[in-house]
Amino acid sequence: MTALLVALAVAATATPVSADLKRARDRFEFGAWSEAAGTVRAWLGEHPDASGPEAIEAYRMLGIAELKLGDLPQARSAFVSLLSLDPDFALDPFLVEPKVVEFFDQVKREHEPALGPLRERRRALDEQRRLADEAQQRLLSEEQARSGPPTKVIRVQDRIYLFNWLPLGAGQFQNGDRAKGTAIAAAQVALGATNLAAILFHNQIAQDPSRRCSTSQPYGCRRPPYTDADRTLLSRVDVVKYVSAGLFWAVYAYGVVDAHLRYVPRIETELSPRDGSSLRLSWSF
Question: Which residue, among 73, 61, 67, 58, has the nearest Cα to 99 in the 3D structure?
Fold first, then answer.
């Protein structure tokens, strides 16, 4: 039951982006408290100035892990560090076992005299940030009202590198060379269909029992089990099969090389309004 509560508590928090914190979280979920605490401490040592959601998650895991290990001073220190980053932080009693919540709340009460001013300072900073955002929006709105709508915009087209490796002229179509892309696609479709037809025709002849022969026949069966005529036909079909396959891959290789040579990751095009048409910023993939 305890492990389930801990896992639910972890699931309720933001997933860490850092690979080290992800590894610590995995150990934390399985109840490997010592390994989780060690990994978190290593991450905190590498990021002494961390103050965002990752740092809060790190101190939360460290505090709970140290409490599970019975090291109350270290657990207290971790929770105090967490509260210094978020004075209003609280553990959910429905997801975290009661003794952990009780210990955390006790630490929070003991440091309330210091948390009060810190909380007020954070609120003041949030208010300043909000006022700064409003002033910025007001400035932009006034400038737009004064200068009118924009006379030009930039259209940004992000291209996908993977398309350079796809068959059927995908790279050429992405690069805007539709004629070449159509030619490559048509050639690969034709060569692929020819190769498939040759394979099916070859198998049909080779697996047809009625076409088998033996040396007892008076003529036309020098190399059983196929008649001389069928063996000649199979040889010609093999030529078609291998040549079509080779040409298919040659066209594919040409398409890949050509796509790479003409590939540009991002295209920015300056647009100007015509006939009063509206402008917009768009991305196409």
Answer: 67
pLDDT tens digit string along 156-212?
777 788 888 888 888 888 888 888 889 999 999 998 999 999 899 888 888 877 777
Domain count, the chain: 3
DSSP letter, residue 30: T
Which domain range does residue 63 map to?
A: 2-110
- Count the alpha carbons within 13 Å of 243 in the hemisphere toward its beta carbon: 7
Secondary structure class of 153 (helix, strand, coil): strand
**DSSP string covering 60-115:** HHHHHHHHHTT-HHHHHHHHHHHHHH-TT----TTTS-HHHHHHHHHHHHHTHHHH
Residues 12 and 106 occupy one common structural domain: yes
From start to end of the chain, where are the E strands? 153-158, 266-271, 283-284
CB atoms within 10 A of CB 49: 5
Instruction: Give the residue carrying structure tokens 């070449």.
Output: 180
Supply the mean pLDDT for the chain. 80
Q: Does 143 share its domain with 192?
A: no
Q: How much is the pLDDT for 265?
A: 80
Global pTM?
Answer: 0.45
Q: What is the DSSP string of 109-132?
A: HHTHHHHHHHHHHHHHHHHHHHHH
